[in-house]
């Protein structure tokens, strides 16, 4: 019996173990540690020299907001983009975190598909993404008026996820002082 | 009624497949002729029943039977006919039916064309094939019944994702499945050989046509998918290193390696254990791809609806099939006698280099795809690997592969003469310089890698032409062109296949290099009448107009393209809004020319009469698909080679192999 012939089997066993764990991680669900936590502190430059960047304080101005992590190289981002445009048209405040991307590519991406974001922070080295626990691009965070993460969606927002996301926004808005005032 | 017939057919097919998995295997171990000869009729029987089920599902789609859940969820009465048909496999359940249909089709073909195989070996191959089929049928009947009814019936369907409504995509999944599932034949052959404990050049000859067939389908399927991404999605790219793209690319890399290692095994009786391992891994990676697409462990554009129950089932299936075969390999492969020896610098050596480089590439793509998941499972850290990782690690391997590819075919078997090969390759070296220089003259300065890419492609082309010249003996004096052509015509089709496929590789490299390095991109805001220069072309924006389609409405832009004063083309890019399900898509307008593509996408209006637009000139981009086309043609030529014709091994089988009775029992 030759030990080297066992290598493929052992490697495969490790793979199956990782896949089993991966299957039960349910990456699309909110890691419980993230909910109700304030967003990590950050201050990112804008995509272009002029214009404003994005800071954590922009996300805690009293109303519920969305933070969307996107990149021009991310294929699934294109799938959810029309829905983001729709949300922006409805007046829902949407902020963008441009993750590990070249600014010129990101601008071209937005030029082609439209810009749904009020402000965009350029996270070129992905540091802020790590603080947020970005698993895969795209990701979308619902943040309430106190700047706490209320809901997290991993992966593209497909038609079947839209209702759930809208409900999360509504719920976060109810917890937010500014939205309450607006609705009164 | 018809959906129930389909459902029952699947159950009957499962029963037949289970019987076909057990009886012939038992018969082979007991040397029972009757049990072994059950394999073929049972295989054909299960194929026919799955075909009935497939036809029943197709019928439900064609008549828009909205009492079937699957049809409600994925079809719509207003959908064009072609997409009603392709809708059958545009979803999880339906694509599984197609998957098992192809699986049993391949099993039946092996049974019907494999008369030359020894009875016990054929029985074992078919039993393994039936085992896989029955596992998938069980999976389908338990977790994903395509014929589930809704009561009361729905009035209208939800429609198919409009991105999937495209002729290119209608045929992308079937081809891909043909490739994925075709690799199951090599897998079954490998497992059967391990059970029998015998393996020789003849095995390689038997398995090679099946690998070729699967490889061709996989190549064409992947190319079709990338072509679809390029012209339908309007993303401007053609390959994104998306997890699901990778899931099809890994089996392709392994199948390519297997294709080359079976040559060594057939000619030289060497690399046996390695070839067996590749045969097992090829299909294993197909299964892994299936798991990744359907379990939702990785996020991707391609992901089907996610259901953890299904994921777990496929994972168990994966663990049993791959784990079982690799365990068998670990126990049994050591007892296979070692094959022929060869010097490192030889044809075999070059093919080993090919195998090593392709396998490392496959491993890199696999690691890059699964790394985020691994890290999450081990440490809980969350990371993403983007295209930069793949580009940095993949490109150097391909550079080495292309260099070796120039040498390989010119080296002799067993012991090559590197000095002689280098001498013959002088012209190829010159061609490499000329290629890089020519690129500079046409497109001007560019990144170093661009010139390297051109040099490598021309190096490869030069090497192929040298090989052709060598085979035609054009250096013989006096020079007789007709005699040389005659010699070329007598070159076996297999060699022509190799030339075509390798040339395809060179053309592919040219396409990738030029389109990545010298693309011109303009992002502009245009008013009707405005003109923009894009590379050598002038694009005049004529305005936009609303148009309607069968199940969408659209705004259509209109560009006139001129080169100097010469009219080239009219381009009509669209922004479509589909009604069911509501979704917007971008239809790029592409005008392909031999030297490159003109590509226009129309964006949003600025509200003041202007429209944003994205205009490109992509040099040589269509060469990517032409190159892949040449590869597939090469595969076809090789498949049509006399030596590989299905009947050919018959005599060899009788003369060189002892009958089944002489085989050692377990």
UniProtKB/TrEMBL annotation, chain A:
Keywords: Cytochrome c-type biogenesis, Disulfide bond, Redox-active center. The lineage of its organism: Bacteria, Pseudomonadati, Pseudomonadota, Alphaproteobacteria, Iodidimonadales. It is found in: Cell envelope. Belongs to the thioredoxin family. DsbE subfamily. This is Cytochrome C-type biogenesis protein. The keyword Disulfide bond applies. One of its GO terms (molecular function) is disulfide oxidoreductase activity. PANTHER family: THIOL:DISULFIDE INTERCHANGE PROTEIN DSBE. Residues 33-174 form the Thioredoxin domain. One of its GO terms (biological process) is cytochrome complex assembly. NCBIfam families: dsbE. SUPFAM superfamilies: Thioredoxin-like (SSF52833). InterPro entries: Periplasmic_diS_OxRdtase_DsbE, Redoxin, Thioredoxin-like_sf, Thioredoxin_CS, Thioredoxin_domain, Thioredoxin_ResA/DsbE_sf. Its main location: other. GO terms for cellular component: outer membrane-bounded periplasmic space. Pfam families: Redoxin.
From TrEMBL, chain B:
It holds the Pfam family CcmF_C. Keywords: Cell inner membrane, Cell membrane, Cytochrome c-type biogenesis, Membrane, Transmembrane, Transmembrane helix. Residues 315-642 form the Cytochrome c-type biogenesis protein CcmF C-terminal domain. It is found in: Cell inner membrane. The keyword Cell membrane applies. GO terms for molecular function: heme binding; heme transmembrane transporter activity. Residues 89-295 form the Cytochrome c assembly protein domain. It is a multi-pass membrane protein. The chain crosses the membrane at residues 6-26, 38-62, 96-113, 125-142, 175-195, 207-229, 249-265, 274-292, 312-331, 352-374, 394-413, 425-443, 449-468, 495-514, 620-640. InterPro entries: CcmF_C, Cyt_c_assembly, Cyt_c_biogenesis, Cyt_c_biogenesis_CcmF. Required for the biogenesis of c-type cytochromes. Possible subunit of a heme lyase. PANTHER family: CYTOCHROME C ASSEMBLY PROTEIN-RELATED (PTHR43653), CYTOCHROME C-TYPE BIOGENESIS PROTEIN CCMF (PTHR43653:SF1). This is Cytochrome c biogenesis protein CcmF. It comes from Iodidimonas nitroreducens.
């Amino acid at each position: 019996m030759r030990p080297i012939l066992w290598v493929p089997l052992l490697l495969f066993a490790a793979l199956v173990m990782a896949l089993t764990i991966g299957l039960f991680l349910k990456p699309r669900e909110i890691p419980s540690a993230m909910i109700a936590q304030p967003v990590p502190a950050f201050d990112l430059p804008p995509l272009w020299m002029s214009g404003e960047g994005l800071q954590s304080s922009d996300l805690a101005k009293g109303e519920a907001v969305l933070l969307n992590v996107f990149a021009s190289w991310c294929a699934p981002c294109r799938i959810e983009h029309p829905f983001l445009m729709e949300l922006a048209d409805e007046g829902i405040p949407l902020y963008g975190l441009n993750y590990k991307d070249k600014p010129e590519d990101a601008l071209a991406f937005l030029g082609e598909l439209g810009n749904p974001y009020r402000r965009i922070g350029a996270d070129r080295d992905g540091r802020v993404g790590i603080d947020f626990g970005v698993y895969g691009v795209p990701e979308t965070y619902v943040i309430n008026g106190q700047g706490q993460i209320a809901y997290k969606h991993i992966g593209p927002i497909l038609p079947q996820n839209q209702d759930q996301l809208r409900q999360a926004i509504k719920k976060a808005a109810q917890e937010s002082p500014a939205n309450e005032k607006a609705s009164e | 009624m018809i959906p129930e017939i389909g459902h029952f057919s699947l159950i009957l097919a499962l029963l037949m497949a289970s019987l076909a998995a057990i009886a012939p295997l038992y018969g082979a171990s007991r040397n029972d002729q009757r049990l072994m000869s059950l394999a073929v009729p049972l295989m054909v029987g299960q194929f026919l029943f799955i075909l009935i089920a497939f036809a029943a599902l197709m019928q439900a789609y064609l008549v828009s039977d909205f009492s079937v859940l699957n049809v409600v969820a994925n079809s719509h009465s207003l959908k064009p006919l072609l997409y009603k048909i392709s809708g059958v496999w545009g979803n999880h359940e339906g694509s599984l039916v197609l998957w098992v249909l192809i699986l049993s089709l391949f099993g039946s073909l092996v049974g019907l064309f494999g008369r030359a195989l020894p009875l016990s070996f054929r029985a074992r191959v078919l039993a393994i094939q039936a085992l896989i089929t029955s596992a998938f049928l069980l999976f389908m009947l338990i977790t994903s019944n395509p014929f589930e009814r809704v009561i009361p019936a729905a009035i209208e369907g939800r429609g198919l994702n409009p991105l999937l409504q495209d002729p290119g995509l209608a045929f992308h999944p079937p081809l891909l499945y043909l490739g994925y599932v075709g690799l199951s034949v090599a897998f079954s052959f490998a497992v059967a050989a391990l059970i029998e404990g015998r393996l020789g050049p003849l095995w390689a000859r038997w398995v090679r046509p099946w690998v070729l067939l699967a490889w061709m389908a996989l190549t064409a399927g992947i190319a079709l998918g990338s072509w679809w991404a390029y012209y339908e999605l309007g993303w401007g790219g053609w390959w994104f290193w998306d997890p699901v793209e990778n899931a099809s690319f890994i089996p392709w890399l392994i199948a390519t390696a297997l294709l080359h290692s079976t040559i060594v095994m057939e000619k030289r009786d060497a690399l046996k254990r390695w070839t067996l391992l590749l045969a097992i891994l090829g299909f294993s990676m197909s299964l892994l791809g299936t798991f990744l697409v359907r379990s939702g462990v990785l996020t991707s554009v391609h992901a089907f609806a996610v259901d953890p129950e299904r994921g777990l089932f496929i994972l168990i299936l994966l663990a049993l099939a791959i784990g079982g075969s690799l365990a068998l390999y670990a126990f049994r492969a050591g007892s296979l006698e070692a094959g022929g020896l060869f010097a490192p610098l030889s044809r075999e050596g070059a093919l080993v280099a090919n195998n090593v480089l392709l396998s490392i590439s496959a491993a890199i793509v696999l690691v890059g795809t699964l790394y985020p998941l691994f890290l999450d499972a081990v440490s809980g850290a969350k990371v993403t690997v983007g295209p930069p990782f793949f580009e940095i690690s993949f490109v150097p391997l391909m550079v080495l592969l292309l260099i070796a590819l120039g040498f390989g075919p010119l080296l002799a078997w067993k012991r090559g003469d590197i000095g002689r090969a280098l001498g013959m390759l002088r012209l190829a070296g010159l061609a490499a310089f000329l290629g890089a220089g020519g690129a500079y003259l046409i497109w001007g300065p560019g990144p170093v890698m661009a010139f390297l890419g051109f040099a490598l492609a021309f190096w490869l082309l030069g090497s192929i032409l040298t090989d052709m010249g060598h085979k035609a003996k054009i250096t013989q004096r006096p020079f007789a062109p007709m005699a040389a052509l005659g010699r070329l015509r007598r070159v076996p089709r297999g060699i022509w296949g190799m030339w075509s496929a390798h040339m395809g590789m060179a053309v592919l490299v040219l396409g990738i290099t030029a389109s990545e390095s010298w693309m011109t991109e303009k992002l502009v805001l245009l008013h009707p009448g405005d003109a923009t220069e894009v590379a050598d072309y002038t694009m005049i924006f004529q305005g936009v107009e609303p148009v309607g389609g069968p199940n969408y409405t659209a705004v259509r832009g209109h560009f006139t393209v001129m080169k100097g004063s010469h009219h080239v083309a009219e381009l009509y890019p669209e922004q479509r809004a589909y009604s069911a399900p509501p979704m917007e898509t971008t239809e790029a307008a592409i005008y392909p020319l031999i030297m490159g593509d003109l590509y226009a996408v129309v964006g949003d209006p600025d509200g003041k009469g202007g429209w944003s637009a994205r205009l490109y000139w992509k040099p040589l981009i269509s060469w990517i698909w032409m190159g892949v086309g040449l590869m597939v043609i090469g595969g076809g030529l090789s498949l049509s080679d006399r030596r590989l014709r299905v009947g050919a091994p018959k005599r060899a089988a009788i003369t060189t192999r002892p009958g089944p009775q002489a085989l050692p029992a377990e």
